[in-house]
Amino acid sequence: MAATDPVTHDQWCDGSYDCTDNSDEKSLCCVAGKHRVNGECEDIDECSGAGTLVCSQHCHNTDGSFECSCDQGFNLSPKPHSQDERRTYCQPLGNDPVFLASINSDILKTADLQSFENVSMEGVEDSHHIYDFDYDYQSNLLFWCSGDTQDMQSSMHKNLWKARFDNSENLREADKVAEGVDCASIAVDWINKKVYWVTADRGQLVVSSYDGSNQATLLWRNVDWILRAIAVSPKSGYIFWSNCGSDPHIGRANMDGSHPTFLIQESEGDQIVDPTAMTIDQNTNHLYWIDAHYQTLHIMDFNGNDFALQRSIHMVSAWRMSLFEDSVYWVDSVRTDGSYKMHRASKLTGDSYIETSLGIEAQISGFRMYHQLLQPAVSNACTGSKCDHLCLLTPTGYSCACNNGYRLIDDERSCAKLDSPCTANSCDRMILIYKYVDIDM
User: Fold this and answer.
1) In whole angstroms, how far apart are CA 49 and each of 45, 52, 298, 303, 366?
2) Does the pLDDT value for residue 4 go beyond 50?
């Protein structure tokens, strides 16, 4: 082939001489970390795109390469079994993580997934069937929702509890936070000391102070919604939920319930049907979730961008998710081969998949990784606020909210009781109409 003969794009710099003067493998080739664009060698941005994550936490693009960095509390270490010295991972400092799981009326713990032990629940009464739980590591508090029925859709006799949690060893000094709550999933704001939950069959998002003295329904959208999972990011001021009912979607709102929006939505053509499990990477601001219908693991950023399929997973039905280091974990809601399974995959690529039999015959209703670095410390914008009832975080700071049956007046911090008599539910709806007309998608 002569030097002037045409060659295809794939023949440039492919390691094979296609031109008689070898010009297709010489000066026109780009060094590693760059690619040809319009005849010129331009930098490859290895840090762009959630589907091609190269760093555990933070990626900084450089000319022809990239560098990784970690948040405080992590040590940047060489990635095991990698031939690329640039590929590192953020190794957490401090104690090893503890796996916590709720089964029937018990909280179980393990460090190695091989042998679960019961957490002592001294002084905890009337726990019954635990549906979900979350914790505040710094405050040594565990919150859980329980009732006297295994029916997740029923709100009969459900209560929200909290108790002191001593180094994942014992639960003491249990207090009832709220009664008659319909909580399918709960999430703790460990910065502003609030607990959030979503209802299974009424499409509600509710927030409460730790002691239950102040409680407000932030969103009430549709009785056809089946809200399944919830996650909060106090650092960003966002709350996320998944809906497996009418018009399946992943939603996001500010933590005061304002500016609700859909990030991924079936009615808009997105591939989502049954998003049963969800978790957040608090260090990278990425959201992971599993669609049990498609049996797929997904990732996107907090704005719904960089949406990517991490991997197809063969499972019966994912139920709860958690994350630690470079791995995402999830458990099944259905037993296979006589036991429930835990699954693990790389949060960066979806590879390195491992399935572990837990040797547990009862269904795991709740699951969390327990470690201080999963709840990073940030400043609390509500410190010093003069809200009458509730101060709630937002991406720009905070806003005040009122208890059910009250409304926020013009000074945007004081609450006035609603004049018209109403039941708890109708008051909730009146408050929502006053604050937010609808979720306008």
Assistant:
1) 9, 6, 13, 13, 31
2) no
Global pTM? 0.85
Bridge-based pairing of strands 249-254 and 74-78 is: unpaired
Closest CA to 364 of 381, 345, 342: 342
Total number of residues shown for the chain:
441
Cβ atoms of residues 284 and 274 within 8 Å: no
Looking up tokens 């470690």, which residue turns up? 371
Q: What residue type is 7 in one-letter code?
A: V
What is the rounded distance in angstroms from the CA atom of residue 122 to the CA atom of residue 149? 22
Q: Say if residues 90 and 56 touch (Cβ distance below 8 Å).
A: yes
Question: Helix or strand or coil: residue 326?
Answer: coil
Q: Tally DSSP H helices, then E strands, for the chain.
A: 1, 34
Q: Answer for the pair 318, 292: CB distance below 8 angstroms, yes or no.
A: yes
Pull the structure tokens for residue 175. Answer: 């207090």
Q: What percent of the chain has pLDDT over 90?
A: 35
Which pLDDT tens digit goes with each residue over 383-426? 999 999 999 999 999 999 999 989 999 999 999 998 764 444 44
Question: In the beta sheet, which residues pair with residue 296?
Answer: 291, 312
391's tokens: 């101060």
Give 333's pLDDT tier (boundaries 50, 70, 90). Answer: confident
Token readout for 428 is 């909730």
